[in-house]
Amino acid sequence: MQRAYSVTQIQFDCLSYIKEFGGKPSEWTVATCVEPEPFLRDRFGADRDHGIWLTKPALTPKAAQAVAAHLHSRYRVQLDPPAPKDGHGRHVVLVRRVPG
Question: If you placed Cys at 23, which of 3, 4, 13, 27 could pair as Cys (CB 3.0 to 4.6 Å)?
Fold first, then answer.
């Protein structure tokens, strides 16, 4: 089974990533998904070689939703609602949007 992280750890990692790669929190998007690699590719055009992004598995889908909601309400990270077919997964995805 894949390792899972706590809400606090994921929030810390996301904020550290924003600080490390720069930009305002509002220039980033947070989402939850079931499978991060196809989600990144299909939704954001990102993959292992392109884009600045982070994925972290939470303990449960509800924990992942709590991380996304907190980053959105507290830091104004853009919240990307899940597509109906995706539902709420336990993976938190943070993506820096490309200007333009």
Answer: 27
